[in-house]
Amino acid sequence: MKTGFAKVDITPRIGVELCGFGPYRHRYSIAVRDNLWAKSFALEHDGEKMVLVSCDLIGLQSITINKVKVLVEEASGLPPESVMVHCTHTHSGPATTEMNGWGEMDSPYMEILPYKIAKSCIDALQDLQDSEFSHAEVPCEGIAYNRQYDKTGALPDVLKENWRPEKPELTDTTCHVIKVESRGKLRGFISYFGCHPVVCCEQSRYIHGDYPGVALNNLEREFPGSIGLFLQGAQGDINTCVVHKTEQESLLALDIIAARFANAVRNGLEKAKSVKIEKINSAIVEINFSEKKLDIAYLKNMLAEKESIIQKADASDEPRDTRMAMVMISCLRKIIGLVEKGEPTYPTARIQGFRIGPIVLLGGPFETYQGIKNDVKASAKSPVPLVMSLTNEYFGYAPDKETATGYAAETVPMILGHMPFGKIHEELVEVFLKLEKKLLK
């Protein structure tokens, strides 16, 4: 098997607005703590070729994804199903997707971005060399807790090396590490783990890739010449143990949490066992997920309620409720327009898979909950099925079937201008398993 690695700097200029943590926060960057990268891993084996790029970004919109795939195909001949574009979901990077009110996209940066991501892919494809492939699954603890069903601790407690959440079984307690060598030298590595990169939070104004970005950039310095990719797993209901702290507390904690992850990945590199790659292949399944059917009268009543909050002379734009009302007004107007035309509010989703021998990567454009990943893993036929969030477009959360209401299930779809999903848990598990079956033929 041949592999290639490459990376391209995608750090924006200082001053761009960062994405995440609430409506119209105006969180403009003031410095670069760590550079952001588009890191690519290309493979060629037995006539098949494909490339995966992982970007230190919160997510990407369809127009950017499509442009990347076109550019890569023009340069290499690779079809779209053989190019997988993934994001780590850092909340300390620029706004790069359509989340109304959650950060303004910078037009010059967004125009340049697909060319940089495509260059990373193309460079990796031009770097193909005979390689040895190995894999490990190792402990990865003291980083995450389930924000839906558990709680984190006080800052002094979670920074202790022996801290663990009350319900660790509701998180990833291991990470997967793929190690690639050529002639005995480490060329690159890939780590997989599911947890929101939110050590640095709503008060932070520094650009960086949060714990996975800092960890892997440091490991690259430790292993000169190597390139390390992070693949975001089922992080929808998972936060870092340090979250919603002050800027200074967050920046200091970032090094500690990043070191914990780096230690786990380093352990994986040491323990990785050789894997025989008999076959590689890729596939995409397109699907329209079911939506909740909200009555047009209900939507118009909701719009009127939100307008009553903000459309008055004594309203202030300072309270969060006012700013959130504006988000909902913009989104409800869009949704009502689509419903009145009889059109679906969600575009077609692309669910993409890569098979690398016994390892199967299953990626969707969601922040996927652990329960969905667990159901896929329980029924999957491949030895190492890895469910990836934030692959291709960004469609918000894929919550588990127990989470029918609240921020993830109801608010975020509205922020994106869509209806809430109908049965996303069951439908996403089904399509992931169908995709895996297709890859294993």
Explain what you see:
- With 441 residues, the protein is α/β, with parallel strands linked by helices.
- It has 2 domains: 2-276 and 349-357, no CATH class; 296-340.
- It is built from 10 helices and 20 strands.
- It has helices spanning 62-76, 107-125, 155-158, 210-222, 247-271, 296-310, 320-340, 370-379, 407-415, 424-440; strands at 2-9, 31-32, 37-45, 48-55, 83-87, 129-130, 132-139, 144-146, 174-182, 185-193, 206-207, 227-232, 238-240, 273-274, 280-287, 349-356, 359-363, 367-368, 384-388, 397-398.
- Strands 5-4-3-1-6 form a 5-stranded mixed beta sheet, with helices on one face.
- Helix 8 (370-379) runs parallel beside helix 10 (424-440).
- The longest helix has 25 residues, at 247-271.
- It is globular.
- The model has no long low-confidence stretch (mean pLDDT 97).
Helix/strand layout:
Blueprint: E1 2-9, E2 31-32, E3 37-45, E4 48-55, H1 62-76, E5 83-87, H2 107-125, E6 129-130, E7 132-139, E8 144-146, H3 155-158, E9 174-182, E10 185-193, E11 206-207, H4 210-222, E12 227-232, E13 238-240, H5 247-271, E14 273-274, E15 280-287, H6 296-310, H7 320-340, E16 349-356, E17 359-363, E18 367-368, H8 370-379, E19 384-388, E20 397-398, H9 407-415, H10 424-440
Parallel strand pairs: 2-11, 4-5, 10-12, 17-19, 18-20
Antiparallel strand pairs: 1-3, 1-6, 3-4, 7-9, 7-14, 8-13, 9-10, 15-16, 16-17
Helix pairs in contact: 1-2, 4-5, 6-7, 8-10
